[in-house]
Amino acid sequence: MAKSLFKELGGKHERQGDYLIPCIALPAEEEQPIGTWGQRHFDYLKQYRKVTYTNLLTSGRLNAYLADIDRQAQERFERLIEGMKQGQGITERLKEENALEWTGRLNNIRACAREIVNREIIYV
């Protein structure tokens, strides 16, 4: 009887009653912290990109991939905020003179930057 592909690749079986069940385990993966952006992309992958999610999970690269997405999104978010602040003339002087207006304008910029990052990186 020919060996199965599973056995040729070094797979092992465990006997349970009359059946041989393959012993399958996910590869070890280095744990890296994943922030809000990475969690959002993780949820998106699980819900809408199941094949990509499964491939990353079974290859042991999911955590590293999500950490990289999180880093890229955070850097893009910060660059967008700084660029928009300069473009709209939001300075520390405005913060000192009219803190309420400064807060409102900065919150608007953050919301716009969040939408751009979501569209360009997270939900792709």
Provide an overview of this structure:
This is TnpV protein. β1 (13-16) and β2 (19-22) form a beta hairpin. The protein has six helices and two strands; from the N terminus they run αββααααα. It has 124 residues and is mainly α. The longest helix has 27 residues, at 62-88. It is rod-shaped. It has one domain (34-122). Strands 1-2 form a two-stranded antiparallel ribbon. Helices cover 68% and strands 6% of the residues.
How do the strands line up in the largest sheet? Answer: 1-2
Instruction: Kindly name the structural category.
Output: mainly alpha
Number of separate strands: 2
| Overall shape | rod-shaped
Low-confidence stretches: none
> What is the average of the pLDDT values?
91
Range of helix content: 55-70%
Instruction: Report on the biggest sheet.
Output: 2 strands, antiparallel
How many structurally independent domains? 1
Strand content: 5-15%
Task: Record the SSE blueprint.
Elements: H1 5-8, E1 13-16, E2 19-22, H2 36-48, H3 50-59, H4 62-88, H5 92-97, H6 99-122
Antiparallel strand pairs: 1-2
Helix pairs in contact: 2-3, 2-4, 4-6
